[in-house]
Structures are given as C-alpha cells and as structure tokens.
Write a structure and sequence with these properties.
heterotrimer, A mainly alpha, B alpha/beta, C mainly alpha, A: mainly alpha, MetI-like fold, two-stranded antiparallel sheet, 2 strands, 71% helix, flat, C: mainly alpha, 11 helices, globular
Chain lengths: 297, 303, 326
C-alpha cells in the first residue's frame, strides 16, 4: 500500500528521530518500572518458600516450642504463635468490623454533607496513616498499664488499626449502592435503620466482606502494635483476656534476631505460614468481590 | 470578514495547486443545482471510502459507507442519534484506534493512499487531519502554550517562529484580537466560544490538510456558534472541512455537501447499526432528497 | 436494642399505629450507634495524643529542648533524640527517591499503555507486594538481602572513597544493615500505595483532553506531558506525601535492617537508627525516664505523620474533587 498520499508527496509514515526514540524510551522505562517491582517480590517469595517449606509440617504448626538454640529446626513447633494469631486477630476483627461498618453507615446514610461527617471521613483517612507502633504505645498507655499484658490488649491495638480501613472500604461500597434501592424501600414505609440494615447493607455485603478480609490480612501481619501489648512469650496462652501471649509475627521478629540457625529456620517457617494466611485472605477477598459483589467500581 | 493574508512559511508542502480547480462557494440563495461542469475531479478527492464498515469488537457500529470528500469543501454529516456519524468522522483521522477493539473493514483512502495501510502511522495521519471536539478541551496551560503545543512536538523550538505561528493560528481562528494581550493566561479561563476557537487555533497551528469537527458548536451559545460558522467559511479556502452536526439549519448554512446517516435496527439482537443513506450537494439533500428516509429527517418528521 | 419508636408521620400523634409493633429496631438507637461509631475515630485520635503525651511527660520535663540534641545515652541518662529524627527523615527520603519514579511509571503503564485486559495481572502483582507483612520484609532483609547487598556497598565504597561528596555518602564504612538498606526495603513497601493512589489520580484526567493531544498528532509521551501531567501533578504530589508518611512510620522492617546505631552521619551505607525502630527495639527493657523518652519519640512520630497525612490527604482530595466538579 502506498503511504505517500496525493501528488504533493505527503508522508504518512512514522515520524523518525527523537520523537519516536523518546516515546520508545518512555515506554521502556515504564515497563522497567514494573520489572523492578517484580524482582524483589519474586526474590522474597522465593526465599520464604524455599527456606520455609522444609520446616513446615503439621507437627511444626501444632507442636510446642523449644528454646531457640536447639537444633534442628524441625523439632519444636509454633502452636502458641498460631493460636495467638488466630485468637488475637479474631478478637480484633470482632471489634473493628462491626464498629467500622456502623461508622461508614453514619458517614454515608446519616452524615451526608455535614461538617461532622466530612471531618470524620477525613480523619479516618488520616488515621490509616498512623504508624502501627504508635497504636501499640497508645494501648500500652491506656490499657496495659492498668490491666497488664494480654491478647485482648493486642486485639485492641490491631482493632484500632483496622477500624479506619474498614470504615473507608465500607463507605466506598455503600456509595455504590444506587439510591433507587433506598428510595424503593422508603416508599414502602421503612425507617432509615430498617432500610440500611435490610436493603443497603445486604446489597453491599460482598464489597464489605471483601474489604474486611483485606483489613484482617493487614492486621494478621502486624507486629509493632503487639510488641508492648502482648509481650511475646513462648508458651501458649489460651486465655486471650489475660496474661502475655504470642503471635506469628511476634515470633518471627524475636527469632529473626537470634543468632541460632534453628531459630532462624523456625522464623522462615513462621514467615511462610504468615504469608500463606495473608495470601489466602487476599484471594478470599477477591473471590468474594467477584462472586458476591453486585455493584463494583 | 477578511481572509487571513499571510501564508505561514514552513517546510511542508502545502496543498495550493488544487485550489484553483474548485469553484468558489456561492451564497446559498444563488446556489444552482448540480452542473456537471462544476463537479470536482478525482484529483480533488481528499477522502474516498468504498462500502466500509466500522466495528467495535464484534459489534458492527456502521455499515456500508461509500462517499468522497472533496477539496476545500465543507461536508456535513447529519442524522439522528446513534447513527454513526461521529464514528465515521473519527475513522477519517484514525482516532478510533484509541478504542480497543475498534477496526475498519474496507478501504479508506486519503489522497490516494490507504489510511489504514501497513506502514501508515496514526501520528502522521493526525498531524495532517486535525480534529475539533464537541466540548472545548484546552490544555491546562497558557493560551500561548496551547497553540504552540503542536508545533513544539513537531520540532519547532525557535521562539520567534513560534510567536509567528501562534499569532497566525490565533488570527486564523479569529481569536487573536481578544487574547493577544493575555497569551500567558491559562487556556482554561476562556469562555466556551473562545475556548473552542482556541482549540481550532491549536489545530490550525500544525498546518493540517483537513479539519474534522465533531459537533463543535453544540456546547456553545448562538452568538459563539455564529462566529464559528463564519470562521469555517473563512478558512475553507485553505482546508477541507468535515463537520458532524445535530443541527440541520447549521448544515444548510455552512456546508457544500451533506451526508445523511440513519439507523438500522436489528430486531433480534436489538442493536443499532448506522448506515449512510444519502450523500450529495447540500441544496439537493434538503430541497430534493432522493431517499424517503432523508426526506423524513430533513422535514422533521423523524428526529 | 432499645424499643424507642419514632413517631410515624402518617399517624396522628399518640395513636398506636399498626406499624409500630413490627419495628424491632429502634430507629433512633441505631442512628446513635452509628454516630458513636463514627465519633470513635475522633475519640481514638484524641486519646492517642493525650495518653502518649502524658506517659512521655517526664521526658519532656527533664530534658526540655535537649530532646532535640544528638545525645542518646540511656546508661548516662541522656536522651537527646536528634539522631532518630535524622534517621527517620533520611530513610524516608531514600525510600521516596527510589519508589516514586517506579510507582509513577507503573501507574502510567497501567493507565496509558496497557490495554485493560492486561492490566489485571499487573495490579495483582502490586497487590501481592502490598500484602507481604512488614516482619517478613524485615526477616528477608536482615538474613538475605543485607548480607548480599553488603558486597555491593563494599565495592561502591572502595570506588568512591576519597571522592568529595560521593565519598562521604557512599564511602566506607559500609554495612549491610544500614540507612540505605532500610531505605530500599521501605521503597519496596511503599510502592503499592503510591502506585495505586497515583493511578487513581491519573485516571481522573478527562479522556477528552488526551484525545485532544492525540488529535494533534502527538506520540504517547507527548500526550502524557501535554495533557496528563499538568492535570495530575498535584494529585501525584499528594500520593508521594502519603508514601512519605508511610515510610516514616514503618517500624518492624526498619528495626531489623537499619543497624541500630544512634548516630548522625552522612554515610548512608553505615548503620543507623530511626524513631520507629528505636522504640520497637528498646521499649521492652526501658523504664522510668528511658521509657518516657521512647514514648515521647512515639509522640513526635505521631505528630509528624499526622501532619504529613493531613497535608497529603488534603491535596489528594482536592485533585479528586476537581475532576468530579468538571
């Protein structure tokens, strides 16, 4: 096909020279940026899986721990940490998710454009940026000093971290629910509470659950807020309401600084477990979004 | 209004030789029916399409469009909503390439060369075939930088040259007198009509061969609309213009030829496909339409 | 749940409307509950400020303005925290310098280059990066990454030793656990948030502006510079600030890889410390004024990150609002 048009010789081919080169360099740099991100991700995942896979076993996950300087790493287990993580995270979720949903309900259904709702929404976003260690210091000051270390305190700290995340993600989901749904319900004579609970929340439930799962994933992986609230110990403490306890991230943190390879290996095993938990939660969130979200962005 | 006098001096070939062969546009009242002696010859064909269809993915948006656009004429595309007139317009400068899945079946020729040929670059195409959009879209830059954007990306960095080009283009768009003292101000601060003329100036600054206009006046008030219509008549002698318009009176006021599109409804899939119904000189389309659908539309019986 | 029933506007006041019995939820009670939950956010923020400052008060009173000196020696009851403030700022800057070009590059890749169908895998990769817990970054950082990069540092250190500026930044002594390593790990960690926020901002650029640039015959890079960048630069600045705030507050990964040395030095490859890390590492053993000092460092960190976040959110919100208003 001729690319020279008309008798004047108009050239329809690609502009040569710097324009084309600079465009290509730009595209290359953008792709490079992505590659630069894949490399550390791959490196971390590969290392954790490689080093942790040999440690993981049912016995590892459910056995009792042994002192850090004992080899081999296969002996001894992480049950206290697993139990701790499950209990503390579950408690934190119990605090943060209902309160977070209610907070988002306030923002979206009651607050409207008022100054208070705007302030709460804004400060909620700001709160997601509060360092997790500050949350730990906060709960230490306000709870631990009076009531001692406990899994409960750790749950409070994690709950404070999760709360603004749940509020924001729930708020976004509620915004997506079309007003026509609410109006239809009001027109049948329902009160605002009833409309919200029976129509709006169910409509948004997929996105809400998904957002909550992601918040849980974040909380499960947090260490700093637990440092001064649960006071990492090595024995299992099934009573989450009193007495210090431990969790997977706490265990990894304390083992990471041990010079003994046994302890380090156990840390890798715990890291693999933790990553697996976080991934599962993330994938669950995606599945919930895909299958159950009626309204998505 | 006067024709802008000066030609901008560039190193690109201009399409001057063809100008003499096209008859001067006559005032609408004196327009005579088609006279064979005045039909433009094949070398005046700027665009030629032959039964083209345009698809978005597997959906056929427009079908069976055959027409020729002629040098230094204003051609109007009219028709009801959804009839594909904007789709066809955007095909003429390969703007549909930006939509994933959009493709054209059939040949679209620009001055003899295939517009969708293998080695053809959309960037070069769009430089030659400019477009003005429905909603004025000046860049968030100064008025000067808006107009200078095109020349700059084509390699012109000489300040004096740029000043010249900016002034030329703004004069060409009948905007110079209004903004010459505030070229540094943001383009976003202009009124709708001024912003649209800025967009026209911006398009003229790269010295295109063709200017495509997608309902350029639909967001403007009647006075601003009138100024743009006058502008179109002024610049017609240097460019070829294709305009999509919803406003039939506008088509009769400004265009030499008119293409009427309509919608074919596919009852099974409830989809709509656009089709070119009739194409001819504007006076003929409006006063003596050959197709009954054309007649329904131009007499207002169909919307 | 309370049994407060709201007066039904359709019924005359005082009459037992047939709908009353069927409402188990107290409408007003629910509203109050929702409001209380919302207020909880504000309450918590205020409580954080109050309680931590209270716990840190003995530090503020004994040291006064000396808290801003580089004089940290708990054994000798010296608690000047300047080195930690320095460390927080330096590591955050290193992280930003590395993360921002990469994050903006990926955001542009997603919005301008990659067709929608291919964007999902890229977003998944970014999400994977985001879900890795801080402690795992730290574990990998100290046991794998730091020993490996120490060799690179040593090479660079040998090459630039003696060179005027570079020598003091990158010269010996070099250590795997250092400011720079902490900065790199932080860069990995803040990339997801800067990317996703930048992407949101860039996506608000009206398509018609981009088309306007393409219609003039622009290449993609030219279009980005002409239409996308002027619209989104403000929002991207906000996204960068949010990343900065995150980098300053990130604790555990930094605590493991920064080297735990309370010093102020231009040597980026040398061990250092920062605010979050010193709290994490030393709070357990601290008591008295020492503990108050660490608490006070926490207060400083809280104040700094709150300010950065407020500024960042304001910028991001404003640029998002501009789109919606357009």
């Amino acid at each position: 096909m001729a690319v020279i048009a008309g008798q004047q010789g108009i050239d329809l081919r690609e502009p040569k020279g710097w324009r084309r080169t600079s465009n290509r360099i730009a595209t290359f740099l953008m792709v490079l940026a992505f590659v630069l991100v894949i490399i550390p991700l791959g490196f971390v995942l590969f290392t954790v899986i490689a080093k942790g896979a040999s440690i993981i076993s049912w016995q590892f996950l459910t056995g009792q721990p042994i002192p850090p300087n004992v080899e081999p790493a296969g002996v001894g287990g992480l049950w206290p940490a697993v139990l701790g993580t499950i209990e503390i995270t579950a408690l934190a979720t119990l605090f943060a998710v209902p309160l977070g949903i209610l907070g988002a309900v306030y923002l979206n259904e009651y607050g409207g454009r008022g100054w208070l709702a705007a302030l709460i929404g804004f400060m909620s976003d700001v709160m997601t940026g509060v360092p997790s260690i500050v949350m730990g210091l906060f709960i230490f000051s306000i709870w631990v000093l009076h009531f001692g270390y406990s899994g409960l305190a750790g749950a409070f700290a994690l709950g404070c971290l999760m709360l603004p995340v749940v509020i924001r993600s729930t708020d976004e989901m509620l915004k997506l629910v079309p007003n026509s749904l609410r109006e239809g319900s009001y027109a049948l004579g329902a009160t605002k509470a009833r409309v919200t609970v029976t129509v709006v929340l169910p409509a948004a439930i997929g996105g809400i659950v998904s957002g909550a799962l992601l918040a849980v994933a974040r909380a499960a992986g947090e260490t700093a807020p637990l440092l001064f609230t649960i006071l990492t110990v090595t024995t299992a403490n099934p009573n989450v309401f009193s007495g210090p306890t431990t969790s997977l991230p706490s265990q990894i943190f304390s083992n990471a600084t041990q010079p003994y390879t046994g302890a380090q290996d156990r840390a890798w095993g715990a890291a693999l477990t933790l990553i697996a938990i976080c991934f599962i939660l993330m994938i669950a969130a995606r599945i919930v979004t895909a299958r159950f979200s009626r309204y998505s962005r | 209004m006067e024709q802008p006098e000066q030609e901008t001096v560039t190193n690109l070939p201009r399409t001057e030789t063809a100008t003499q062969e096209v008859p001067m546009p006559e005032p609408a009242a004196l327009r005579r029916p088609d006279a064979a002696a005045q039909e433009p010859g094949p070398e005046d064909r700027v665009f030629e399409t032959d039964k083209i269809s345009i698809y978005y993915g597997s959906f056929r948006a427009v079908t069976d469009v055959t027409l020729s656009i002629y040098q230094n004429e204003i051609t109007a595309f009219i028709g009801p909503s959804g009839c594909g007139k904007t789709t066809v317009l955007r095909t003429l400068n390969r703007m549909n390439d930006l939509i994933p899945g959009a493709h054209v079946e059939g040949d679209v020729r620009y001055r003899g060369a295939s517009l969708y040929g293998k080695d053809v670059s959309p960037i070069a195409v769009r430089r030659r075939i400019g477009m003005v959009f429905q909603k004025p879209n000046p860049f968030p830059k100064s008025i000067y930088d808006n107009v200078a954007y095109g020349p700059r990306i084509n390699g012109e960095h000489n300040k004096k040259k740029l000043d010249e080009i900016v002034e030329q283009s703004l004069r060409g768009a009948a905007l110079w007198d209004e903004v010459k003292d505030r070229l540094g101000k943001s383009g976003l601060g202009l009124s709708g009509g001024q912003a649209q003329r800025l967009c026209i100036a911006r398009t003229l600054a790269v010295e295109p061969d063709v200017v495509l206009m997608d309902e350029p006046c639909s967001a403007l008030d009647p006075i601003a609309t009138g100024r743009i219509e006058d502008l179109m008549q002024e610049i017609k002698s240097k460019y070829t213009i294709v305009i999509v318009t919803h406003n039939m009176q506008q088509a009769t006021r400004v265009s030499d030829r008119t293409a009427f599109y309509s919608v074919l409804v596919n009852p099974e899939s409830d989809t709509r496909t656009g089709v070119l119904v009739e194409y001819g000189r504007t006076q003929q389309i409006f006063e003596d339409p050959h197709d009954s659908r054309t007649q329904s539309y131009v007499t207002g019986r169909m919307g | 749940m309370s049994t407060v029933t709201q007066a039904d506007p359709a019924a005359p006041a005082g009459s037992a409307h047939p709908l009353d019995q069927r409402r188990p939820l107290g409408d007003r009670g629910f509203a109050i509950l929702a409001l209380a939950s919302g207020l909880l956010v504000l309450v918590i923020l205020v409580l954080i400020a109050i309680t931590t400052t209270q716990q840190a008060s003995s530090w503020f009173t004994t040291e006064g303005w000396k808290i801003f000196t580089n004089n940290w020696d708990p054994a000798a009851n010296q608690f000047g925290a300047l080195s930690f403030i320095y460390g927080t700022i330096i590591t955050a800057i290193i992280a930003i310098v590395m993360a921002v070009p990469v994050s903006v590059g990926i955001a542009l890749l997603l919005t301008e280059v990659v067709p929608y169908r291919w964007s999902r895998p890229i977003v998944y990769v970014i999400d994977l990066l985001a879900v890795i817990p801080s402690v795992v970054w730290g574990l990998w950082g100290i046991l794998v990454f730091a020993p490996w990069i120490q060799h690179i540092y040593a090479h660079i250190g040998n090459v630039v030793q003696g060179v005027p500026v570079l020598g003091s930044l990158f010269g010996p002594p070099t250590s795997g656990a250092s400011f720079f390593t902490a900065g790199i790990i932080l860069a990995f960690m803040i990339t997801p948030i800067v990317t996703s926020l930048s992407r949101e901002v860039i996506a608000t650029v009206p398509a018609i502006d981009k088309e306007g640039a393409y219609a003039l015959g622009a290449t993609r890079l030219e279009m980005i510079r002409g239409a996308v960048w002027p619209h989104s630069q403000g929002g991207v600045v906000g996204a960068v600030l949010l990343g900065l705030g995150r980098a300053m507050g990130e604790t555990i990964a930094v605590a493991l890889v920064i080297g735990s040395a309370a010093v102020i030095t231009p040597h980026l490859f040398a061990p250092g410390y920062n605010m979050a890390a010193v709290i994490a590492n030393q709070f357990g053993e601290a008591s008295g004024v020492f503990r108050a000092a660490l608490m006070g460092i926490g207060v400083l960190l809280f104040v700094i990150t709150i300010i950065v976040n407020i500024v960042a959110r304001t910028i991001v919100d404003r640029s998002a609002r501009r789109k919606r208003g357009a």
